[in-house]
Every structure is written in C-alpha cells, then in structure tokens.
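Annotated sample (chain length 548).
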Amino acid sequence: MNKLLLLIIITVYFQKQAQAQRQGQDRIDSLLGRLPKANDDSNKVNLLIDLSHTYYAINPDEGLKYGKHGFALAEKLNWKKGMANASRTIAGNYGYGKSDYTTALKYSLQALQLFKEIEDKTGTARILGDMGVVYWYQSDYPNALKYYFDALRMNEEINNKPDIAATLCNIGIVYNSEKEYQKALEYIIKANQIDEELGNKSGIASNLGDIGELYQNLSDNNKALGYFENSLQLCEELGDKNGIARNLGNMGVVYMNQKNYPKALDHFSQALKISKELGLQVGMAMNLGNSGNAYLEQSKDTLTGKYHLPALQQAKVYTDSAIKICREIGDLNTLSANYNRLSEIQMLLGDSKSALVSYKNYALFKDSVFNMEKNKKLTETAMQYAFDKKEAAIREEQEKKDLKQRYIRNSIIAGAAVMGLLLIGLINRYRYKQKANKELATAYEHLKNTQQQLVQSEKMAAFGMMASRMAHEIQNPLNFVNNFSELSRDLAQEIISPGNEEEKKEVAQDLINNLEKINHHGNRASKIIDQLQEHARLGTAQQFFEEE
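Output written by the structure step:
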C-alpha cells in the first residue's frame, strides 16, 4: 500500500475516533437513557443496533455487547431485517474496532445471507461494500475488488446514486493501493461526477483530494497541486478541519518535491497546528516528520555541497518530536523511517555515536515491522482458508436452495400454462358445440319444412322429445367438465400457496386426475355431437334418441 495513503487513512481513522469520543458519548448517553423504557419490539432492536454502531470507535467490546443483544431480540421476534442489521454492526465492531477481520467476515456473511433472504438490495449492497473494506484492510486487493464490484452492480440496479459514488471511490482507492494509478483515477473521477450531480460538497472535496494524490503518485505535481487547492477551498467552506489539514500536508509534500522548502514548511506548519487542535497524533507525527525531512533537504547547499547548521538543528528538533509521538501511538513503520532520518542528521552534525544508536533503532524497528507483517500474514492465511472453506459450503447450500425454488417456480408456471391451454381448448370446443347446435337447428328446420304433411301436433311432439333428449345427453358431460374445472382451480391455488412439499405433490396428482376427467367428458360430449350430426344428415335423428 502507498505509504502516504496509509498515513492519510490512519489520520482519518483517528480523526473519526476523536470525533466519536467527543460527540458520540453524548449520543450514547441519550440512547442509554431511552433503553430501560423501551419495549421488546423492533424499535428496541434498532436502539441496540444504534448503540452498537456508536461504540465502534470508542469501545468495540461494548459495541459487541449491544449488537449481540440486538441480534438475540430480533431473532426472538423473528425479524430478519433486524437480525441482518445487527449482524452488520457486530461485524463492524470486530473489523473496524478490534481488527479481528476473520470474525468480521463471519458476521458479514451472516448479514449477507439474511439480506438476500428478505430481498433487501440496499442492505445487500452495503454489506458487500463492508466486506470489500475488510479485505482491503488485509491488503487482499483481488477479493476487495470482487466485493466492491458486486456492491456496485447492486447499487446500480436500484439506482442508489450516493452509494454508487462511494463504491466507485472505494474501487479507486483499491486500485491506488495496487499502484494502478490510471485505473484508480478513472473510478474516482466517475465518483466525483455523481457527487457533483448530487451536489455532495463533502464527497467532492474528498474526491478532489484523492485525485490530487493520484496525480502526485503519477509525478504530475502541477496537476496534483491544482486538485489539492480546489479540495482545500471546499473543505474551508465546509469547515472540515481534517480535510484542511490533509490538503495542506499534501500541498507541502508537492512543494517539497519541487524543492520549494519555505512553502513546504509553511504548509506543514499549518497542517500541524490543525492536527494539534483536533488531537490527531498520527497527523502530528506525519507533519513533524515531513517538516524534519524538509529542513534536512533545505540544509543542503547545492553549490558548495555543505550543510547549513541551523537547518540541520531544526530538522533534528522536528524528527525527535515525530519519533516521540510515533512511540506513543505505536506506529513502527513511521518510527523506523524517522530513526533513519535522525541517524543521517546526527552524522551530519558530527554526533557519530548517537547516529549509530539511531541507525540500530531504525534497523530494529524495520525488522520488527517485517516480522509482525510476516506473522500476521501467516495467521491471516490460515484463518482465511478456514473462512473461505465455510463460505464455499454456505454458498453451495444456498445454490441448492435457489435451484429447488426455481424448479418449484418453473413447475407452477408450467402448470399454469397447461391450464391456460386447456381453458383455451375448452372455449374453442364450446364454440364448436354452439356451431354444431346451430347446424342441427337448421337441419331440423329443413326437415320440418319438407314434412308439411305431418300433423302440426306430431311435429311439435317430436321436436320437444328430441330437444329434451339432446339437452340431457350433452348437459351430462358438460356438468362433469364444469365441476372438475371448479375443483381444479382450487387445487391450483393450493399448489401456489405456501405449505408442505409432500402435500403439494398429492394436490398436484389430484389436479392431473381432474384434468384427465375433464378431457374424458369433453370427448364424450364431442362424440354425442358427432353421432347426432351423422343422424341429422341421414334424417334419422329421432331414431338416434330412441336407440339411446
């Protein structure tokens, strides 16, 4: 990871921690005051989650206590959204508060499953983004990008523009960590375009600062300076002191690269003053170290090759101060770099004995950092293997459930399609019967006209008998068709309703039996019509009914 970026991230973290300690405690006191009066319902779950989240940067152990209490209550209420949000805040306390990334991923995965079950796309996108952050903290950039891109697709699907911008920015930061500066620039510029569309000045200020750092990494100091100045102006409008300090420090580094040491020192001094006001020790250490480096570079006389004593002494004062703070906060990386610089300054001042001690400290802390990172990586690799194995098993189980649900859904759709086709067939058959009835009436009328010699009463009697028998013969199978159609509709409703899968199979078999009976009696009616048409054609319709 880029060293300057890491220092800035740490600065932002401690700034948020300091703000939480100053401002969050009032919120915590207010929430704790409401807790005893709260009923055991969803409102209390949200209250406990709020407490857990507010404890992130102050006391993660307390945050975990309230988060787990919230999860237990949500589980008791069978409120999956509450369980999902509680799992997310528990993961946050483990990841951001305690740096226990494996446990954080475990609870994140639990939250992800719950959000998916209730089809909460906003929650799903946010927990995917959280998992991307956890992987990024572990320098696992491929996995960080995987989860960020998953979150981005979900946010784009629901058109959540603020979260789209934030995710694009996070993707850019990961690419920056991989030193893919052009890719990082592409994504952060996209994020800034959305923030400008939304009028999000805070996001724009942060994006401009990030873009400036990327141009700095690309060695384009002039462009970097322009973005830092624009970001600084916005931060001043917003009263964002941390942003002001960040941009002043970055501008100082640009001026130092341009060998404009007076301007560099002026900006480091302003940034240092704001860091002191905010109580940000990381920011103080960074700006003190940069000031020491600027004084060291300024002390060199390029013409004579000699070093100016006052500048060297100032470099030593600032470097000593940076070392003191780095020891207090345990920043071994920066501590090692400052000891290396101090050793060089002491040699130039003629204090070779102290220079040797400082160099030994530099080597000691450098080795310590290396060994810590090595052990941490081995531990994380072993734990990550176990986590990935569990995650794969859970994903496989979820895929099986999804496949089963798709099968049931497709079966229902297919059943509905078959029913639809059957209904269309019945309608067409009914129309055909109507047409056949009309043809029969026409034939009968023709027969009546050609048999004028028969007594009117005989004709009427014959007609009455034939109509009655015809209605009786056709009505019988139609009754069966109508009855079984009604029953089939009820059975179809039972299939699409929630219930036991075994019962649904039995109901489905009943539905199939009904459809077979509908088909059978429909065919009966059709045969009666066919026979009647044949008799009508031959003029033996009355004989047809008498034979039956």
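Annotation: Residues 352-450 form the longest helix (99 residues).
Annotation: The radius of gyration is 40 Å.
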